[in-house]
Specification:
This protein is of the alpha+beta class. The chain contains 5 helices and 7 strands. A 4-stranded antiparallel sheet has the order 3-7-6-5, with helices on one face. Strands 1-2-4 form a 3-stranded antiparallel sheet. Strand 1 (about 15-20) and strand 2 (about 20-25) form a beta hairpin. The protein starts with a helix and ends in a 10-residue tail after the last strand. The model is unreliable at about 5-15 (pLDDT under 50).
Length: about 150
Amino acid sequence: MKNLMTEWRNFLRESEVKYSGILKIKPNQIAISELEALKAMLPEEANRLSEKDLHVTLVHQSILKPFQDQIKNIVLPEPPQIDLDDEVFERTSPGKKSWAVRLVNQDEMREYVKHIMELLGSQNTNPEPERVFHVSLANLTGEPKDSVR
């Protein structure tokens, strides 16, 4: 019984790193629960993203395009844990508005990106120094493509 409980706790903690044009981390069940609780802070105009769309973008697709064949053929190291802030913030750009939660462990995420870019043989191991790692919770439409980049 103890082994089963240990395995279950490990499953709940594990996040998954995926490449789908972008490099992203899919939250584990603990982070999903925290994100669901944070959705209570959203204003009425916010249309929530579905659970399947929640993720942390690590590297944008425009940067990974030259490496797409390589990234499909490497074993990606286990990602850092998603460590969420406890506040929702609003992001705007012309015609768009979205609500997100920052990650507290920005430096750890940056180091992970650096490691991935080194594995890919990139000369630029910090391709998006201005990136603020976050999870978008909602936007004006509820469609992930409509969140502020």
